[in-house]
Write a structure and sequence with these properties.
It is globular, with a radius of gyration of 21 Å. The longest helix has 18 residues. It contains 13 helices and eight strands. It is about 45% helix and about 15% strand. Helix 5 crosses helix 6. It has an eight-stranded mixed β-sheet with strand order 3-4-2-5-1-6-7-8, with helices on both faces. It starts with a helix and ends with a strand. It is α/β, with parallel strands linked by helices.
Length: about 280
C-alpha cells in the first residue's frame, strides 16, 4: 500500500507542476489553408457526423470492455494478472463475491469491474456474473452493449426474478445483472435482506460474482454492498485520487476484506497505460 501512496504523491506533484502550463501547440507553419465551409455544408455535416457526446460515449464503452475487444492487449494482460492474484488468495479463503469500488467517481472502477469480470469469464468452465450495483448512475449496460428490460431494482423489490433480469453476453461465459429502474432508495435496497438472499442464491450458481458500486465517499451504497461480499478491490487513479481520499475510503470499509488497491492510469511507456497493485 505504501507504493500506491508514493505513486499518488508523485502524481499529485506532477499534476501541480503541469498546472501552470496552459499553452496549446501551434499549427505547423506549412499547414495548407482550408476554405471556410459554407453554412449549407455545415448543416449537412451536422446531420451525418456523430455528435461529440456520442463519440465520447462509444469511446468510453470501448475502453470499459478492452479485454473483450483486444484480449491480447497490455491492459488485458494486467487484468489477467489481477485475476490471478485474486485466484491465489481464493485458495486460502472464500472469494466468490468481489466488490469493486473507488473513493471517488472517475477513478475507473466500472472499467476495472467490467474487465475483471470479462477476463475471469475467459477461464475454462467458469461461470461469472457481473452485477451493476450503481442504481444512481449505472454504466454496465452501456459498457457491455445491452438494453435491459429488467434489472437489479426490479429483482430486489420483487417485481422480477433473477432469471428474468440476468442477461448472457453472447460468445462469453459472462452474465450480467444490470440496472433498469432507478429507485429513490438505492442504499436501503442494497443493504436489505432481499439483497443478501439474492447473493446467497447466486453464489450457488456462479463461480465468481463481480459487483460494481458507486464511489465510497459521498453515499453509503458501496459500504452496504461490501459488507455482504467476500472481498474488496479498490481502484485509485494515479493522476487524480488524493491520498487523504484513499485513507477516508479505507476507514469506511472493512479493512479485513481489502484484497488490494489497483493503481489506474499509470504510464508504463509512451502510448501504453497499465494497472498495478
Amino acid at each position: 500500500m505504501a507504493k500506491v501512496y508514493d505513486a499518488l504523491k508523485r502524481a499529485e506533484e506532477e499534476r501541480k507542476r503541469r498546472g501552470g502550463d496552459t499553452t496549446s501547440p501551434a499549427a505547423p507553419l506549412d499547414a495548407p489553408s482550408t476554405p471556410e465551409p459554407t453554412k449549407r455544408t455545415e448543416q449537412i455535416l451536422e446531420k451525418v457526423r456523430p455528435s461529440r457526446h456520442s463519440r465520447e460515449r462509444a469511446s468510453d464503452s470501448n475502453k470499459r470492455r478492452i479485454s473483450m475487444l483486444q484480449p491480447d492487449s497490455y491492459v488485458a494482460e494486467q487484468f489477467r494478472a489481477l485475476r490471478a492474484r485474486i485466484d491465489a488468495m481464493a485458495g486460502q479463503r472464500q472469494l466468490k463475491t468481489i466488490t469493486v469500488c473507488s473513493p471517488l467517481a472517475g477513478d475507473g472502477k466500472t472499467t476495472a469491474a467490467v474487465n475483471l469480470a470479462m477476463v475471469t469469464a475467459l477461464s475454462v468452465d467458469r461461470r461469472v456474473l457481473l452485477i451493476d450495483c450503481d442504481m444512481r448512475k449505472p454504466k454496465i449496460h452501456t459498457a457491455v452493449g445491452i438494453r435491459p428490460e429488467l434489472g437489479l431494482a426490479e429483482v430486489l423489490t420483487g417485481e422480477a426474478t433473477a432469471d428474468q433480469a440476468i442477461e448472457a453476453i453472447g460468445g462469453t461465459q459472462l452474465d450480467v445483472l444490470a440496472v433498469r429502474g432507478r429507485p429513490t432508495n438505492p442504499s436501503e435496497l442494497l443493504g436489505s435482506m432481499a439483497m443478501r438472499k439474492l447473493l446467497d442464491e447466486l453464489v450457488e450458481r456462479y463461480d465468481r460474482i463481480v459487483l460494481d458500486t458507486p464511489a465510497v465517499l459521498g453515499v453509503p451504497d458501496a459500504k452496504a454492498v461490501a459488507e455482504i461480499c467476500d472481498g474488496i478491490v479498490m481502484i485509485v487513479r494515479a493522476d487524480s485520487t488524493a491520498q487523504h481520499d484513499v485513507e477516508a475510503a479505507l476507514e469506511v470499509l472493512d479493512r479485513g476484506k481489502i484484497l488490494g488497491l489497483v493503481l489506474n492510469g499509470v504510464r508504463v511507456e509512451q502510448g501504453r497505460y497499465g494497472y498495478s497493485s
